[in-house]
Write a structure and sequence with these properties.
heterodimer; A: mainly beta; five-stranded mixed beta sheet; four-stranded antiparallel beta sheet; globular; B: mainly beta; seven-stranded mixed beta sheet; 49% strand
Amino acid sequence: DAKTTQPPSMDCAEGRAANLPCNHSTISGNEYVYWYRQIHSQGPQYIIHGLKNNETNEMASLIITEDRKSSTLILPHATLRDTAVYYCIVRALLGGGGADGLTFGKGTHLIIQP
Amino acid sequence: DTGVSQDPRHKITKRGQNVTFRCDPISEHNRLYWYRQTLGQGPEFLTYFQNEAQLEKSRLLSDRFSAERPKGSFSTLEIQRTEQGDSAMYLCASSGSGTGVSPLHFGNGTRLTVT
């Protein structure tokens, strides 16, 4: 899987949009961008994934640049409960073998300020 | 959907003892993964099952570690002769098959402390 680069930490004011960047300049054509978050003492929680189109669900929006070399996760109205470590991961389509699991980096520690 | 369940949530053991953890995946998921996470690091892949077949093992999975998924449902991870370096959070995840891009859904882990 391609590597990703994320800032180690970010702050955001409660009620504002939190925009978390991720660089994945070596992403391949068959690799998806996944976002997970992990709140202290819990397992990682799936947020969203996408290939090349922007995606939105009840938790967040994912904006992928046209060249697919970077993406941004947007939490539209951050709350204190969104304080967590956010992981950006690129993952290949299952192609007849291999774990097709997830390779985690260190993520971005997002702190929502009251 | 009751989510991925792991038991126990916490385990304290003395060095040299054996421990076993259990994971119950989401019922319709045929893929099951084990990860390990140490403080300040992201989770690291250990091993992966598709149904009852163990298809891949990480180099992190030493000979003291063994995982099973006998009927393609729940899985167990056993660590023999535990060492202090085994202290970590052990996470289980499951996913469905099909397109191959089904998200992994994680349990809340078993935190192991080896004294």
